[in-house]
Design a protein that fits this description.
The complex is a heterotrimer. Chain B is mainly α. Chain B is about 75% helix and about 0% strand. In chain B, about 50% of the residues are buried. Classes of the chains: A alpha/beta, B mainly alpha, C mainly alpha. Chains A and B meet through α1, α3, α10 and α11 of A and α3, α5, α6 and α13 of B.
Chain lengths: ~425, ~300, ~325
């Protein structure tokens, strides 16, 4: 084997080197021609009408929408492109938390362009786009969170409408003998836990003197864990996966599951698929923690991303700000099939678009209540939620732990303890300062 | 050699291998076959039934039986949705599939033929490379491949899908095993004595005897290319360039975070996308009688 | 088309060629071999560019480590760390646990799929060829169906709430929840079997077609039954094909990814993020963001898979035919 194979390997190596060298020498940057600055927008949600509207009303900037397959696809594409350093888009639909993406080296600082426009945004929306006081994207805010209950079922079993999470537990206990479950905790989706903590005003991460303080066992987290623990221990909740959509819809529609925290974008879906229970549902205020002093809904926002390597961050910011804070920008998101607009989470006053967001039939005679509920929810958003640089990996671990907790393999308190250890260890392993 | 070939041909077409199977064994054979037929085909029944339903019935009626008949509406929706983008995807997939697989067949059959018929220095190393490449987990190569294609200016062009498809190690392996079985070295020897060069011998003898093998290589390659979606997902930007599978995947996932649910279109689309593959299989059957023969890992 | 291929007598020049001397014969042979080798040039040029180069790039990645500092938002410092990542990989309990889990699954599912494929091929071989051709196409439908279609179908069929299988098994008093952690391997195995039996059958059936038919005649003259013929003549003839599809099966099963991932939503308490080796690698590369370590894990996995395949091949090929 020796001589022949060695020579073959060497020849192969020489060939590869030649191939890469040729490729390198071809790599000359293209000069942008004079004329409007072109901004590529990558996203999997079709926003072509918005782009058209922008292009029709602006002459110095042209936006090009580049459709991506889905969220993970966009994430992969952007990571690869930033790593390769060429053909980087200037705007990308949000696919993760800003601090985690910044830590991956994917984002660019746009503070100079977003800060002057802060007043155009809903104040709660701002923190979702910031890390350490600097902006790395355009604030998007978030959809209003409220609850939707099958009022007909509640009335049938004489269960009062819940106002607090304790009421939800009580309702669950009253409904259980009838074979009805009060809520669904999908085993793959820990967002219920996160939302409870955000609603309580808590956070897992905070910064202390250039180091991370990790606290999964804060009073807010423990309170949230207690509520979930009671729901699970008493067998009051279903664990229906979102993946099996027909089963999920059947579950709702057969009155086996009667309340769910929701947001505006999901409503048309239920309107389309429910058959038997259409008209039975009622929008109500999100249940509160017992003893809470102020009405609150979780409102941890996200950001339209400006990727690292974008040659025109100023123009990109201008486009992003226009899309999310102008009436023209929001109006252009109108979807003929659903009759709704994309939720204007960054707008200080979303009320002009609320009516369109409420479907015609789903709430039956309760439809008129929807506007007040949604308005209240979007005015009471709380966001003290801070995300650390390793949150993408932490979230995967959280999913695993959550699945164990909802199937009673561990308690929610154990979940928090495990997450505390995992997160601190992971930060340390990455060489990041930890204050604990 | 020639005598066995002739004899085989005589038996080939219609006689089953078992001469006078008993009644019991015939019943057993057919029970087994019907069982597997049902196992293979029955799940597709759900797909066909679902294709006739509108979006609401899809989730709320029995999946194995028909509700209101909407097949025509669904088909029309499929072909008109979003400015007939589905047709565009079909055309793209066909283009990438045909271009990539024709090139692949030529490159890989030539290579497999040479590995089977000639002994030259480094042959063992080359075979080793081919076998070793089966073992590489794809996850390892995503990022490096992207960086490389980006250097080669192939990202976001059809070349990123077509050209890498040319170099399929499995196809080479398949072609090599085929060549060993189908091309008798004596024939090549005779051609040489008659003064034919190696290249002419390949085109007049080797390639001809390997028609069946090449058809198989082509067919398997085409099915792979038709159903591939990871390459297009990573390397193509913008739905105008997408393939059918990537498009359907994107439609299927719309419901995860948007108010639209296109599962109905995905189901009809999936059936339509199967049609060209089945048609190809049927039309190539005559090149393809004896199926695939694979031997040792030499 | 024979199967049991010994190395062919490769082009030796006829000794009685005109003007033959020993040296010109060697030169002629070398030219022939060189021309033969030239057929492989297009493939290997492409192979080097599109496979070898990325592999080398990944290999070199595995020798480095990236570290953050401060709050973790600045640029990472990348430093050469030799085999540190491999050392870590060798002691990664979760990775080896996942490999062990998948290996156990492979030990059950691969023989099962091969036996079924062989059986199916033998059944097909005993009916008229025209009929067999038609049946073969129908049985290849699962193989032709792309992954997303198979997923759509089986999510529905398995669904305990709306699918038909759970009520079907209830008829026999079996309480089957295909999404439960007890049945997860059955569900994954069936999904794999459905997709791969057609292809395996195709290869084995192809090999069966190459068995010289005269052997059957003489066997029948000797009074052998059809079952006997199938077991003693046909099966040994397709052994090499079976070994090959098994090796491909081993490689594919140890690198299983998309099937378990599908069930992550259904039974997330069982199918964790490091359920299979490739899932562990994906999590490291794309969630934890440690591509260097993921590259090292991939290489370790490739080596282990290679080793297992080689051992399997050696064992099965040594047995007398």
């Amino acid at each position: 084997m020796p001589r022949n194979s060695r020579r073959a390997v060497l020849a192969g190596l020489a060939l590869c080197l030649a191939a890469t060298a040729v490729a390198c020498s071809n790599d000359t940057g293209k000069k942008s021609a004079a004329g409007p600055v072109e901004i590529d927008y990558w996203g999997w949600t079709d926003i072509q009408p918005v782009v058209d509207k922008f292009n029709a009303t602006h002459t110095d900037i042209k936006v090009k929408f580049v459709k991506q397959a889905d969220l993970p696809g966009t994430a992969t594409a952007l990571r690869n492109t930033v790593a390769a350093g060429s053909a980087i888009p200037c705007l990308a639909q949000n696919f993760g938390d800003v601090p985690a993406l910044l830590s991956e080296g994917l984002l660019t600082d746009v503070t100079d362009y977003v800060k002057p426009a802060e007043s155009k945004f809903n104040a709660t929306a701002l923190s979702g786009a910031k890390v350490q006081g600097k902006y790395y994207g355009i604030p998007l805010g978030t959809g209003p969170t409220f609850m939707m209950i099958n009022r007909a079922a509640y009335d049938k079993y004489g269960v009062p409408v819940p106002k607090t999470w304790d009421d939800v537990i009580a309702a669950g206990k009253a409904l259980k003998p009838h074979g009805v479950q009060v809520m669904n905790l999908a085993g793959e989706d820990p967002s219920t836990l996160v939302n409870l903590i955000v609603q309580a005003g808590g956070s897992w991460y905070s910064v202390q003197n250039d180091a991370w303080k990790v606290d999964f066992l804060s009073p807010e987290s423990v309170a949230a864990a207690n509520i979930l623990q009671q729901l699970v221990d008493n067998g009051l909740v279903a664990n229906q996966t979102y993946q099996d959509r027909p089963a999920l819809i059947a579950y709702f529609d057969q009155g086996k599951m009667v309340s769910l925290p929701t947001s505006t974008w999901q409503l048309t879906n239920y309107e389309l698929h429910f058959k038997k229970t259409i008209g039975d549902w009622e929008p109500i205020d999100l249940p509160q923690f017992a003893g809470a002093t102020k009405f609150a809904t979780p409102a941890h926002g996200n950001a339209l991303l400006v990727p690292k390597g974008c040659p025109h961050p100023k123009e990109a910011s201008e486009v992003g700000i226009w899309m999310n804070t102008t009436k023209d920008g929001i109006d252009a998101t109108f979807d003929k099939t659903t009759g709704a607009y994309a939720w204007p989470g960054a707008m200080p006053d979303p009320s002009p678009w609320i009516d369109a967001a409420v479907p015609r039939k789903l709430f039956g005679s309760h439809r008129s209540e929807a506007e007040a509920v949604i308005n209240k929810a979007s005015a009471s958003g709380v966001d003290n939620w801070l995300v650390g640089p390793n949150y993408t990996g932490v979230f995967k671990e959280l999913q695993d732990q959550w699945a164990q907790a909802v199937t009673k393999k561990i308690t929610f308190h154990q979940l928090l303890e495990n997450m505390q250890k995992f997160t601190v260890d992971d930060l340390k392993a990455k060489g990041i300062n930890v204050a604990n | 050699m020639t005598t066995t070939a002739a004899r085989r041909r005589r038996y080939d077409d219609d006689l089953p291998a078992g001469h006078h199977p008993s009644k019991v064994s015939r019943i057993l054979v057919w029970t087994g076959l019907v069982f597997f037929l049902v196992y293979s085909i029955a799940p597709v029944w759900f797909l066909i039934v679902s294709a006739t339903k509108d979006q609401r019935d899809l989730y709320t009626t029995n999946g194995l039986w028909f509700a209101d008949f909407h097949l025509l509406d669904n088909t029309r929706d499929l072909f008109t949705y979003h400015d007939s983008i589905f047709l565009r995807w079909m055309a793209n997939t066909l283009l990438y599939g045909v271009a990539g697989t024709v090139g692949m067949t030529v490159v890989c059959v030539a290579c497999g033929y040479a590995l089977a018929m000639y002994r030259f220095r480094g042959r063992g190393v080359l075979m080793g490379c081919i076998i070793a490449s089966f073992l590489i987990p794809g996850a390892l190569l995503t990022i490096p491949s992207f960086l490389l294609y980006s250097r080669l200016h192939m990202v976001d062009t059809p070349w990123a899908i077509i050209v890498p498809h040319f170099f399929s190690a499995f196809s080479v392996y398949l072609a090599k095993v085929y060549a060993e079985g189908a091309v008798p070295p004596e024939l090549l020897e005779a051609a040489r004595v008659d003064g034919a060069g190696e290249y002419r011998a390949f085109f007049t003898i080797g390639a001809r005897l390997m028609t069946t093998g090449s058809a198989t290589v082509f067919l398997l390659g085409f099915v792979g290319s038709w159903n591939s979606f990871f390459g297009p997902l990573v390397f193509l930007r913008g739905e105008q360039k997408w393939t059918v599978m990537l498009g359907l995947y994107s439609w299927l996932n719309i419901k995860v975070d948007q108010s639209v649910d296109l599962t109905g279109l995905v189901i009809v689309g999936a059936i339509v996308s199967l049609v060209p593959i089945v048609a190809l299989m049927l039309s190539m059957q005559r090149y393809w009688r004896s199926g695939i023969t694979l031997g040792s890992l030499k | 088309m024979s199967l049991d291929l010994k190395p062919k007598p490769l082009t030796t020049p006829p000794a009685d060629r005109a003007g033959d001397t020993r040296s010109s014969g060697t030169r002629w042979r070398r030219t022939v071999a060189l021309k033969g080798a030239s057929f492989t040039v297009p493939f290997f040029a492409g192979f080097v560019v599109f496979t070898v180069v990325p592999v080398i790039m990944a290999l070199s990645k595995s020798l480095y480590t990236a570290k953050s500092s401060g709050l973790g938002f600045g640029d990472k410092t990348v430093s050469f760390s030799g085999f540190e990542n491999f050392d870590r990989a060798l002691h990664d309990g979760k990775f080896w646990g996942s490999l062990w889990r998948v290996a156990l699954f492979a030990i059950v599912i691969i023989p099962l799929i091969q036996v079924i494929s062989l059986g199916l091929a033998l059944l097909l071989d005993s009916v008229r060829r025209r009929v067999a051709g038609k049946l073969r196409i129908a049985m290849l439908v699962p193989y032709m169906s792309p992954g997303i279609v198979a997923t759509l179908i089986w999510i529905y069929l398995y669904s305990p709430a709306v699918g038909p299988l759970t009520p079907f098994f209830k008829l026999f008093g079996i309480n089957a929840n295909f999404y439960s952690s007890q049945l997860i391997w059955v569900s994954v195995g069936n999904l794999m079997a459905w997709g791969s039996i057609g292809f395996n059958m195709l290869i084995v059936y192809g090999a069966l077609q190459a068995v010289p038919r005269d052997i059957f005649d003489s066997a029948r003259v000797d009074g052998a039954s059809e079952w006997r013929i199938a077991w003693s003549i046909k099966v040994p003839y397709v052994r090499r094909s079976l070994v090959l599809v098994s090796v491909l099966g081993i490689i594919g099963t140890l690198q299983i990814f998309s099937e378990p991932l599908l069930f992550r939503s259904m039974t997330p308490e069982t199918v964790t993020k490091d359920f299979t080796p490739i899932m562990t690698i994906y999590n490291q590369a794309f969630a934890v963001g440690d591509f260097n370590y993921a590259a090292a894990l991939s290489i370790v996995l490739a080596l282990v898979v290679g080793l297992i395949s080689a051992i399997f091949y050696k064992l099965t090929n040594k047995a007398p035919a």
